Amino acid sequence: MAAPWGWEAPGRALRGLAWLGQEFAADWAAQDLRAALFQGLLLWLGLSLLGIHLAWRLYGGRVSGLCCRPGTEPNRAEPGPAASLPRAGPPPRDSSSSEAVKTHRE
Fold this sequence. Notes:
Elements: H1 5-30, H2 32-67
């Protein structure tokens, strides 16, 4: 009994990917400048991520303190400290309040 065509397609796809990988490796070996640029950029990315990680470990508490209200701990269920910041527009009009709402223009 012949194998169904469904099992043949993944084999062809894997062989095609293997061939593509071999072609890429051969092209890569022929292009020394491209490999050097890739390695340099990869090293730069790694050092940048390491620097960000170290800076966050050193100054993360201070940055969080600037973003959170004093005396309160951030609620992990909320989206973040930006949710507790006031809106940029005027406050909503409350019909039960009889006093006038002042804006920054007054």
